[in-house]
Automatic annotation (TrEMBL):
Record function comment: Endoplasmic reticulum (ER)-anchored protein that mediates the formation of contact sites between the ER and endosomes via interaction with FFAT motif-containing proteins such as STARD3 or WDR44. Interacts with STARD3 in a FFAT motif phosphorylation dependent manner. Via interaction with WDR44 participates in neosynthesized protein export. Participates in the endoplasmic reticulum unfolded protein response (UPR) by inducing ERN1/IRE1 activity. Involved in cellular calcium homeostasis regulation.
Xref: Gene3D superfamilies: Immunoglobulins
InterPro entries for this protein: Ig-like_fold, MSP_dom, PapD-like_sf, VAP
GO molecular function (one): FFAT motif binding
Signal sequence, renumbered to the chain: none
Pfam families referenced in this protein's UniProt entry, alphabetically: Motile_Sperm
Coiled coil region boundaries: 167-194
The name this protein goes by in its record: Vesicle-associated membrane protein-associated protein B/C
Organism of this sequence: Parambassis ranga (Indian glassy fish)
Length: 243
């Protein structure tokens, strides 16, 4: 039996675009709207769960309202020749009137009650003069999202619909990735400091070598003058003796 048509309105409908550079977390938003007169349960799933953090990844959208889902792509080495195969699926169903256990409702749901929409991921690199602006925007957006939950999510949904186990796993993964990025930044900083130290040592050695050479030249000049004076004095004495 065919599944019913998706009642939620997705924006965007078919693609989630992530704009580089991808050396830091890149965030894009997915808007879910419920135009019906009933509450709708939803879940957001992906084929690459270790590469993304999703806030919120499940919940209830009240009748006639909408929420914004933030999808955060973790840093990675971008290859323009490699096409993204990552996909997302928004799964939904009408919430039962007497629902008390979100997870239990999903487990007991019949296939003909489930609705889904699929989106593919697209990675884009900005032109050269836009890179700095986009990087700063992504940093500010990702930082604010990781510090606090989305302000558009109702308090009721946050407290009663999020899967604690899934949230904990995602937070642990985000923390691990952030620690790894911090470690790489520290290694890069240490390498730059070592290079600077080597350059300073090289300059000091070059300066010392120049100073020694100048002293040698001064010594040679002084000995030459002394010899000329000596020869001059000897010449005068010899001349007097001859006269």
């Amino acid at each position: 039996m065919a599944r019913p048509e998706q009642v939620l309105l997705l924006e965007p409908q078919h693609e989630l675009k992530f704009r580089g550079p991808f050396s830091d977390v890149v965030t894009t938003n997915l808007k879910l709207s419920n135009p019906t007169d009933r509450n709708v349960c939803f879940k957001v799933k992906t084929t690459a769960p270790r590469r993304y953090c999703v806030r919120p990844n499940s919940g209830i959208i009240d009748a006639g309202t909408s929420i914004n889902v933030s999808v955060m792509l973790q840093p990675f080495d971008y290859d323009p020749n490699e096409k993204s195969k990552h996909k997302f699926m928004v799964q939904s169903m009408l919430a039962p009137p007497d629902m008390t256990d979100m997870e239990g409702v999903w487990k007991e749901a019949k296939p003909e009650e489930l609705m889904d929409s699929k989106l593919r991921c697209v990675f884009e690199m900005p032109v050269e003069n836009e890179k700095t602006h986009d990087m700063e925007s992504n940093k500010m957006m990702s930082s604010s999202l990781l510090k606090s939950e989305s302000s558009s999510l109702p308090v009721k949904s946050m407290s009663s619909t999020l899967d604690d186990g899934e949230v904990k796993k995602i937070m642990e993964e985000c923390k691990r990735l952030q620690m790894e990025a911090q470690r790489l930044r520290e290694e890069n900083k240490q390498i730059r400091e070592d290079d600077g130290l080597r350059m300073r040592k090289s300059n000091v050695m070059s300066s010392q070598h120049t100073s020694v050479s100048m002293k040698k030249d001064e010594g040679l000049s002084a000995r030459t003058v002394a010899l000329i004076v000596l020869f001059f004095v000897v010449g005068i004495i010899v001349g007097k003796l001859v006269l």
